Amino acid sequence: MLYCGRVITGIGVGMSSLVVPVYIAEIASARMRGALGNINQLSINFGFVVAYMTGYKQNLPTTAYVPIGISILNLILMVFFLPETPRYLLANNRRHDAILALYWLRGPDYPVEEECFEIEGHVNFGTQDQWQWKDLKSSTFYWPLFIALSLMFFQEFSGINCILFYCSSIFLASGIGARVKPEDLVNSKKILEALKNDSKLYALFVCSTLFIFTGISCFLVDRYGRRKLLLSGSVGMFISLIPVSVYVYHYQFNMKQIIDFLSKQENTTYAILALVCILSFIAMFSIGWGPLPWLLMSELFPIKTRGIATAIVTFSNWLFVFTTTSSFCKVIYGIHIYGTLWTFAIIVVMGFFFTLFFVPETQGRPLEEVAELFIRRNLLQVSIPWTRHDAL
Fold first, then answer.
1. Domain 134-376 has CATH 1.20.1250.20
2. Complete DSSP assignment for 282-323
3. Residue 269: what pLDDT?
């Protein structure tokens, strides 16, 4: 039953991770698209917080009932209240329905006809029929695909899911934050129990940080743009990973070492510093590399190839997730936790330079204008700020 449930859940999550970013991008105005797009990731992170809160003290049935109830509520809201996207309706010659959808989304005082005409011109140009194989040879497809796939690679191989999935184990292995009474230092069972309880609590802190700073990103993305948040996030993640790597390098504990470590009160400072750095890494990831690759995936492609392109990118993202999380323990066995964290830091640096040279700024641009950036252009001409004055 558990395996069947996981398979069904996986299918649902895979479909929603493909459809939701595209849906939000197609219904949002250019001015609000960044904030609304990041709300998708904010909701996912809220789910992490709920999962850790219910799993902290509750038993298995309780932790299962909560997400089931939330999913049923979402299903009711989605089926009965969400309109189809105006771009989809216009592409299928349903102009009246598109206008009604725009009124529903923008309000009665918004110049709906003007936006409809603007979208209609681009849609009619780009969607005379369904995509064909020759469309995949166009620069408006392969350049955005290269960017989106690379962003997903750097997102997942920065180590974020490994830290999220195994943060309790990492804290346990590092002796972070165990609250043990002095008289219990000779009792290994009580020490281990305290470590397990505290590691779960700090894992909840991690997910709460993920949620809070993704919310902050919603307010920053349309003010400062995608590139600046990705670049600053890379710098912050790199700076945060280095102290954690050094800490784990010096303090890798077995039970005897944990007892010795906890007997020295001054070592608590180093554990707290490592915890702060992990939370800092999560925070900087949440501002940039958490939500923005999904947002950019939904923005870069023309409507004609958006479906097939986002399907490829989403599949690749989950493949990267599976690869990193399934191999994490094996990699640790080979190069230890500190070596793995240093590897993540190097990949973060690579992501910084990739963003600097190849990722265009989409802030404030209509989706159709973003796609036109790649028509008969060299990728560097689209992205590098000293080649295009409006790239940053």
1. yes
2. HHHHHHTTTTHHHHHHHHHS-HHHHHHHHHHHHHHHHHHHHH
3. 62
